[in-house]
Amino acid sequence: MQGPPLPFAISCEPRLCPREQGDHLPRPVEILEAVGSMPGSPRPTWVGGRVLRAHVDRFAMRIVVRSSHGEERAYAVKVYGDDLGSQVWGRCRMLLERDPENRGGLCLPIQYLPRARALVYPWMDGDSLNQITDGRKPELLRQAARQVADLHRIPMFPGPPITSQMIVESTGEQCAVLLGRFPAIASIVEPLMEALREAAARLDPVTPALVHGDLAGGHFLWTGTRLLVIDFDTLCFSDPAYDIGHFLAQLERRGLTGKVNAGDAIQWSSCFRDAYLAAMPEVSPRNVSFYRGVTLLRKISTIYRREPERAAWLAPLIASGARAALKEVAAPGGRASAMTGEAGPIDMQAALETALCEVHGPEARIAAWAEEPLSRHGKHRVVRFDVRTVITEGSPEVVHRWVGKFYRGDEDPRSIAAIVKALAEWEIARRGGPIVPRIVAYHAPRRLMLSEYEAGGSLVSAIAHYDGPVLPAVARALAILHTAPIALPGATSAAALVDDLRGGTEKLCARFPREAARLRRLVAKQGRGAPPVPPSLSFLHGDLAPAQLLWRDGTVVLVDFDRCTRGDPAFDLGTLLAQLRRVALRKPGKLPHPAAMRAEMVDAYQRCSRPDPGLAGRVAWYELTALLRKIHTLTFDTTRRPDSEVLAKRQAEAVHLLQCLDTIENEFDSIRSC
Question: Are 475 and 577 in contact (CB under 8 A)?
Fold first, then answer.
């Protein structure tokens, strides 16, 4: 049986609802009827509206009411499937009583319709803070921070305090649900939960305050003249650091998921955080970092729910951000930079974005990225980046594979990049030399060198399985490299290497007194037999080892030019052969005999270079010198790999090399005598 006809017309656009609504929710048409019949409003002749957002348990509408005089009023209406709207209405009334001047710029509801379970707000035209990305953003963020500080000062207690322990427990429950659906990510989530529990024990004491509970850029509305805070569904009593950590985490998530530029996200976070802490210095930065980590951990579930096709890429990034935030909790003062402590994923993404824009222009953006360690033993951290990029709006994603090397100390990465670029301009690969990865960019703030990733297999494995004439190919590639017309300051001489040997000999003798006489005799012999400086100096790699050489379908890939120098080509050959001998001694039978490898390389090198009758003897001298220097490094360098088991293996290798010195010396004496 139908009720009496309405005194006004209705127009609705429910088709704009993006998700199916629950059966327990009122229909949008019913909401139009309720708003049109609101007490205190002029009698309408027409009511129209459209659904803006919809979920299973709630939806929001924009409703316009037109009077008989043609006057129109617009409302924002939020409809609930339960009594939450009534609770929000009560809290908002209390807010207005405690802060009648509304210093926090809160956009509060003007009416609650119990039968429709709907909160009615005045409609405000404007943009959310998330939509604003131009030069207005920094100052608006500072203003937002000050308004949040005003909210936190309102003396209102909407319920018992929400403690950090309660938040840890609810986060654990959420993670348990996530792992029930996606058990494969346990290796990401479980360590984070453990880190979360440990961090919770380090939190600073808290004076609870009124908090928004879901603070994010989407809950600020800029009308052009006023900045308003909206949506008070989660208003509660807790640590005010929760709001700030939540806001920063949401901004970081937008950067990591490609919705905003990561560099902008870092700058904007600094604006908001610094302005808030200036207004509320009593709030703990340590606790802010904790709640930032909590929020990022919880957002892993959001990623799997909303973007399942991208979750495999995005979830590790979000997890890495959570890990960095929780590490800050243990740091002195609880923070070390704007977002941030040590470089986290958002910092790395900013560096990658800078490089991407240098290559493809300012419109290029990163959709997602991942990193994988490439070197565990070197002086510098080296990783491979897989970067999913969108070059122009609407274009398909392209995956770039880059190698990133992080420099420290006194090296000048720019000069190293210039050398690699000079080799590329010389077209070394076309001349028959090795493939040299192209330099992509250098990011000075992180001292990060990015180059194209060149695939290739292990040189040692290729030699062991005789995947073609590997050693002759390496020798030919080096012969071409040594003719590169690249000028460098300084040079490496045999005399300088001998001086270096003498400097460490006594220390070795003290460590191995039974070998002291042999070591002193060998070093003296190397000094007497040191090759003279060649008439013309060649360009050298300077640090050749199997790790710097890759084998790819009959071609050689050469990487890592940090120690390139000028000198005798025999230096490069001898250095590489010394490293191959180490492999042969550690793994007997894996490689050919060192003498055979040396003969094969020297023969191939001489076939494609200028006649050099003394090359074999000089190669032997440099090889023995490299082995003596390596004994010293293995014995005393404990900084690169401080693990006790690894250190023991290095010590054992040093002893083994010492025991083999007589055999090696005799082998080299026979070469020099020939």
Answer: no
